[in-house]
Amino acid sequence: MSAIKVDEVAYVRFQVPDLNEMRGFLADFGLLEVEHEGSRLYARGHGPAPFLHVSEPGEPGFAALGLRASSLEDLHRLAAAEGVLAQPLDAPGGGEFISLRDPDGHVVEVVAGQQPSSPLPLPSRDAWNYADERGRLRRVKRVSPGAAHVARLGHCVLNVSDFRASERWYKDRFGFITSDEIALSPEFSIGAFMRLDRGDTPTDHHALFLVQSPSGPGFNHAAFEVADLDDLMAGHATLKAAGRKQEWGVGRHILGSQVFDYWRDPWGHTLEHWTDGDQFTAQDGSNTATIQDLLGVQWGPSAPPTMA
């Protein structure tokens, strides 16, 4: 049994030397600035989360992963178990948080009690005309140009030094369930895609992926769900026209099934657009997969060396 079961990946936080440069990238990526006093830059999507991405002045690097607890009661119970005190969260939406460090020193901030923001509209949907089913008749389809419409932060991937130690740490505290474990042999696994435990409510194939990487511990990437495939491709065109650095895509993963498009911010942090991912409940169990499944695609370009 875990101490609590978190509800969501809340945000990722970075240090960057130039907030204006990050502001421009986030606009091209489809994240929207949130007004807030202080020296941090907050950005949200079109969903109810008060913010999804935080930038603060400093030497470039990953600063923290935010996870959302179901309630303040859960947050306080975890705080007591960890021997820390909950503090007011000076950020859009308010609430409280605690700060922990995982076995590799990654900062994990657990938040609760935030006031949700009013959701913003996503692009209107129109039916697709499939070869055997015509859903759109006697009208044209037009996709508006511009940045993708980010709906939410779906998952974060962390490189770790000891997969089993990190797996135990995250599962014991937050209730993650393995969806697919990446086994190099029957005796040795290098990582796992882990989903939230929401009981009978379906949730993404993974909210957290831990991988024992040859490059050592650190941030790998964070992935933001966009409205749909047309929206992802419009966002791709916008980022390309802006001269942003693409890392991998467009393609469809094997594990999780998402259509993906990976880009790097001005300091090399990888952020992903994705759409059409798998959904599972707590009862759907766990699987074992291979490194070929991890790096392979159903269609699209092969994984670059930077993703290995």
Structure characterization notes:
By secondary structure, this protein is α+β, with helices and mostly antiparallel strands. The protein has a single domain, classed as 2,3-Dihydroxybiphenyl 1,2-Dioxygenase, domain 1 (Roll), CATH 3.10.180. Helix content is 17%, strand content 39%. The protein contains five helices and 22 strands. The chain has a ten-stranded mixed beta sheet. The protein has an eight-stranded mixed beta sheet with strand order 2-3-4-1-5-8-7-6, with helices on one face. A hairpin with a 2-residue loop joins strand 9 and strand 10. It starts with 7 loop residues before the first strand and ends in a 9-residue tail after the last strand.
CATH topology: 2,3-Dihydroxybiphenyl 1,2-Dioxygenase, domain 1
Over the alpha carbons, how many angstroms does the gyration radius reach? 19 Å
Distance between the termini: 33 Å
Share of β-strand residues: 35-45%
Average the pLDDT over all residues and give the rounded result: 97
Number of helices: 5
Full CATH superfamily name: 2,3-Dihydroxybiphenyl 1,2-Dioxygenase, domain 1
Helix/sheet category: alpha+beta
CATH class: Alpha Beta
The run of helices and strands is EHEEEEHEEEEEEHEEEEEHEEEEEHE
Let me know the number of strands: 22
> In this structure, how is the largest beta sheet organized?
10 strands, mixed
